[in-house]
Amino acid sequence: MTADVLAAAPPTLTLPDAEEIARTVFGIDGSARTLVSERDQNFAIQADDGTGWVLKISNAAEDPAVIAMEVAAVARIASVDAGLPVPMARLTLEGDPFARVDIVSAT
Questions:
Q1: d(Cα 104, Cα 89) in Å, to the nearest integer?
Q2: Which has the closest alpha carbon to 92: 101, 102, 104?
Q3: d(Cα 47, Cα 53) in Å, to the nearest integer?
Q4: What is the pLDDT of residues 1-46, one digit of tens each?
Q5: What class does CATH assign to 1-102?
Q6: Upper half-sphere CA count for residue 99 (Cβ side, 13 Å)
């Protein structure tokens, strides 16, 4: 990991990469489209079952502890006030709130 995540280049995954991650990591079959992001890479996933999801690909320079803190923070907010519209992490097929994925086709 680099010392300065803000200076690190964002991920450059393809739409097929995002669809593969959604399917194999989260069990979501669907089509991806790119969303704007600063230092991460985000995709809107339109699932075949009609549901919509956001797939966030964090910058490789981001400390996993920071990602875990972000997930814990929104979970805590939701536990205090379930009426607040906060994004919740969908657990991976392994039951984890996020996963590390190595992508060969990324540029």
A1: 25
A2: 101
A3: 7
A4: 445 878 888 899 999 999 999 999 999 999 999 999 888 999 999 9
A5: alpha beta
A6: 17
Distance (Å, rounded) from C-alpha 43 to C-alpha 36? 8
Which token pair is 101?
Answer: 């994925």
Helix (H) or strand (E) segment spanning residue 52:
strand 52-57
For residue 91, what are the CA distances in angstroms to 61, 63, 105?
22, 19, 25
pLDDT tens track for 88-107? 889 999 999 899 888 765 45
Tokens at 83, concatenated: 């009426």
Residue carrying structure tokens 């997930």 = 71
**Residue burial 27-39, b: 16+ Cβ < 10 Å; e: rest:** ebebebeeeeeee
The pair of three-digit structure tokens given for residue 76, joined into one six-digit string: 């805590």
